[in-house]
Amino acid sequence: MKIIKSASLTNIEANEVLVESTFTKGLPSFTIVGLPSDHIKESKDRTKSALLTNDYKFPPKKITINLAPSEIKKTGTHFDLPIALLIALYEEKNINFENIHIFGELSLNGEIKDSTSIFPIILSLAKQEIVKEVLVCEKSAQKISKIPNIKIYCVKNLFEAIEFFSKKNKNDFLYKKENLEYEKININNKDFYYEQKYPSDFLDIKGQENAINAALIAAAGNHNILLEGSPGCGKSMIAKRLPYIMAPMSLDEILEIAKLQSLDLKEPDFRPIRVSRNPHCSSTKASIMGSSNSLGEVALANVGLLFFDEIPHFPGSILESLREPLEDNCLLISRANSKIKYETKFLFVAAMNPCPCGNLLSKTKNCRCSELEIKRYKSKLSEPFLDRIDLCVVMNETNIDDKSIVDSKTLHNKVIEAFKMQILRGQKNLNGKLDDEEIKKFCILTNESQELLRKATQNFDMSFRSINKVLKVSRTIADLDGSSDIKKEHLLKSLGYRRR
Fold this sequence. Notes:
Layout: E1 2-10, E2 13-24, E3 29-33, H1 38-41, H2 43-53, E4 62-68, H3 80-88, E5 101-102, E6 105-106, E7 112-113, H4 118-127, E8 133-136, H5 138-144, E9 151-154, H6 158-166, E10 183-187, E11 190-194, H7 209-221, E12 225-228, H8 235-241, E13 249-250, H9 251-263, E14 276-277, H10 285-289, H11 297-300, E15 305-308, H12 316-321, H13 323-328, E16 330-334, E17 339-343, E18 347-352, H14 371-378, H15 383-386, E19 391-394, H16 408-424, H17 436-442, H18 447-460, H19 464-480, H20 488-496
Helix pairs in contact: 2-3, 7-16, 7-19, 18-20, 19-20
């Protein structure tokens, strides 16, 4: 019996799979067992065609392929290559498959193709420190070459894959790794990447100085933000420009976004730009929160940005379900036979009108809403949900005399400097995602600031969660100001962004 190592994806994590083969006497047959999906069952025809078109004999025996462990359901077309190699080399006795994991989909003529699941599988195995060497096609190798500490061998077709195992010197098939060609900064011997390209620039926004300052704080510290204002005042414009000025990204974060892009059936681009997800208010709860079988918008926005436009129009069940990922930075989905945990370290941006018609704050238009309609509209956002928002901003109505205030590059440079301060302090997370212990360690107040916070807590009846939110926002404001301590002016500015 010969064994080749491969793997299968279960939700977002990979499990190592051993592809086992036996060739016994009996009526010729070809069977794949071990809970294979329909993709894998179809592998029999692809494998047979690939072998026969390349002049390899298909053994006239009873062939059994087992995918172990048998209790886990296997999916993906990347098992084609391991199965074909086991059949093509079944008579060879000195072949060593022990130290290498093999992935690849076969075309009918023996060409090896990439599949969307190969990159997230190998990335997951690398994080688990399971994989050291892999054999894949060139397109797969281009993607996984960004993953550190893995030796990659590259083959074009089934003939080269068979030749790979017959050669003693395998360096001819070694794939040269590619480095990320982006601007980077090195902090504490770790690289962080960023790109200063702004297809949507803050320079396009006229006026709204307070809202732009709040957006800067949100980007620098990864703070959740709610923008309230009349239609056309620039709420969506700010949300669309935020991803380009957010903090530099580590290699792990770039790979995480690439993995989520692959799972979303998109081609990963490996750019150090935070992903932005913008679900419509008519989206179902399953499409936003996800399920045990598929990723939702909340999971796909991890280490990026999630934007809810016209947030009062989203169903209350969805908004209340957001409380867990906003508070714990993770989402646990429990079903009868499975429990899946998704990381949700995203920047949450919400936008809303001041009333159903949108004209409540207008100086030129009359509001058509009754007090009851306005109260009902705003009551769709519960207090526990709003308590999880760090920054609340009421935006001014646009004026023809308003001018551009600042460009995205200037804002991005400020974010980068604040980011350096956070990492140099030894923080693993940005200020907005600090836990209780980290808040005590990094959010240091001066004596004057402590007294101010005590008075604010009494006057505004602030919850412990609200106090922590104020401290984290104050920490970011101090970082943007280049201050190691949180001073009175930083705390006052933070309190000004709390919803009352």
